[in-house]
Amino acid sequence: MSIELRTLYRELGGRYELRLAAGEKGLSREVAWVQFCEDEDNTEFFRGNDLAITTGLCKDGEEWLLLFLQNLCRHGAAGLIVNIGKYLKKQDITPAVMAFCEEKEFPLFVIPWHVHISDIMQDCYNRIFYAVQQETDLAELVRTCVFQPEKAADLESEFRLRGLAGKAFYLMVLEPAGVDLDEQLERRILLAAKTSLNPQPFSYVAFWQQSRLFLLLIGAESQMPARIFTKLRQLCLGIVPKCQPVGGISTTRSGSAAMLPGAYREAGAALAIARLKRKELFSFDDLGTYRLLFSVDNIGLLRQMHREALQSLLDYDDKYHTQLYKTLRAYLFSGCSLQAAADIVFTHRNTISYRIGKIRDLLDNPMETAEQRFSLMLAYYIADYLRAVGD
Questions:
Q1: DSSP annotation string for 33-57
Q2: Is residue 284 helix, strand or coil?
Q3: Cβ atoms < 10 Å from Cβ of 312
Q4: Domains by residue range for the chain, with CATH
Q5: pTM of the model
Q6: pLDDT tier at 391, thresholds 50, 70, 90
Q7: 371-381 residue pLDDT tens
Q8: Helices (H), the chain
Q9: What residues have CB less than 8 Å from 299, skipping those under 6 apart?
């Protein structure tokens, strides 16, 4: 899909006398394509993250280069290479041009007139194609391990060849809830995500699957996944304002292909609870009791445990239009405080006291011991879990 601008500069600089004039902080930008552009109106056809090259043939006045750069920024270009010598001179790179590029972190490069633009463009294309193939192969490796776990063990050798073995990783799944993204928007978000991740002191694999953005963070410190999510959430909102991204993060795993399916289950579980709780992000490490439930394969048993513990309340509520099920949950999860439960369900304390007495009779459970209360609380956790997994 793209290549980091820093990589292009490092690999092409000496060969084509390419020199960075301004905007060094923007070298982490991703380059998806290279466009030869002389007319500023043609920037409307840029798809985003294009690297522009110009000779300044259409230069019209001293402010032309600054206006051209402003247009490129508006249309999401990754940077600009200026062919200096005939139409544009060194003095055209004015202090105002330099200041703009530094402020916008927009890389501005220069090459001398004798360098053939067609040569550097072809070289860029070749390197983009190669980078895309490498990125696609790596993403497909991770995707296969995640979604076809029976093949993970057979891919261990390729995992090692890619330099991934033995390195700790987190798997993050980000879901842009609230909107349906088309391919173009997914592309923009992915390129923005890669640009944000490039300066980080760890490697990553990023790809879209089933309308979710998957990020394998390799060698990241424990606090980094949450920070990365916050940054990516801001990027998503900047591109699609109505988007409400939610995320789930796995626990840290060892660098093994066989660990990816488990990491996906954990990240998916955390994402499901984030949606259920209407939170932006959950890590599997922070799920508490839910971690145990997500490791249970016998869904039928969980349904049975919930029915045995609480079905009588649901039946009573349905028959008499009461709120005993909701009241008991508020009571248990507020430390068995009548006043706290009353505040949660917006009911008088005396009403809560009456309901709890009724609940004790219906359940034949005095709720006096920790064990008696735990069985009921676990049933509510199970109810949450079943809703989270859509059961």
A1: EEEE--SGGGGGG--SSEEEEE--T
A2: helix
A3: 16
A4: 3-124 (3.40.1390.20), 148-294 (3.30.70.270), 299-388 (1.10.10.2840)
A5: 0.86
A6: low
A7: 899 999 999 99
A8: 5-16, 64-74, 95-104, 117-147, 156-161, 183-197, 224-239, 260-277, 289-294, 299-320, 324-332, 338-345, 349-363, 370-388
A9: 386, 389, 391
